[in-house]
Uridylate kinase (Halomonas piscis), 261 residues
Amino acid sequence: MPNETNDPLIPAGQPAESSKSSATPSSYRRILLKLSGEALMGDHEFGIDPKVLDRMALEIGQLVGIGVQVGIVIGGGNLFRGAALNEAGMDRVTGDHMGMLATVMNALAMRDALERSNIRSRVMSAIQMSGVVEHYDRRSAIRYLTSGDVVLFSAGTGNPFFTTDSAACLRAIEVDADVVVKATKVDGVYDKDPVKHADAVKYEQLSYDDALEQKLGVMDLTAICLVRDHNMPVRVFDMNKPEALLNLVVGGREGTLINRG
Ligand SMILES: Nc1ncnc2c1ncn2[C@@H]1O[C@H](COP(=O)(O)OP(=O)(O)OP(=O)(O)O)[C@@H](O)[C@H]1O
Ligand SMILES: O=c1ccn([C@@H]2O[C@H](COP(=O)(O)O)[C@@H](O)[C@H]2O)c(=O)[nH]1
């Protein structure tokens, strides 16, 4: 049911067609943008390149400018991943806690970049961190999004053994986003990893079931099961391609669409 009451707690969730009647030229009213932590490194080996943050802030500002509500989940792969720490000998749950804290650091850095560009934003964390960031609360998040604030959902799901892809899909479903937009270092989903295989073939569109059956590594299988069960579309695109984010949000063909098929 479209939200016709203007009650911020009634989900946005309008299909693309119904939102076209509003002032925004966007195909979507509310998106959940998943940013790769690794991509924040830019040309560096580790950490955060402020130039990447500033460029992303600019692109996010363009979306806010056309009336799109933006929730963001940032990965932590530029700092720590629990599985890698575990391979190096650390307890897995401790490593996952470090990975989740890394996502909070990335979210704080992105908020800083957004605010320097005069884009109102808030960081919420799945792990309580009084005095640093607000604890995640779904109803507050929806209110912030409805009022036009960019909301950065940090600390993943708050639980070990998950990833920020799953967190992004979970938050998208919870706040009733229209789509998960996964910004990554490749320009879509291929039949095999395009970084490792020069002959990989790109999909324009892919069903959830095909993505699961073929175990295509661009997104973890838990996340794909979640979006499939809640019929949440996902678009995977290249975050290094200028204007690609704006283009896909206004209905352009960018990357790969994963949906019911
Ligand atoms: N079939 C596939 N199609 C496209 N990319 C693939 C595929 N299989 C593996 N990949 C790899 O998945 C990567 C995309 O994941 P991404 O960089 O977003 O990492 P992540 O683990 O989600 O993010 P983070 O860096 O935040 O941990 C691409 O860089 C690509 O090399
Ligand atoms: O719900 C979650 C989300 C993440 N983690 C840990 O954080 C790192 C970084 O996230 P990426 O998705 O890999 O960028 C991840 O490797 C996990 O160790 C988590 O435990 N729970």
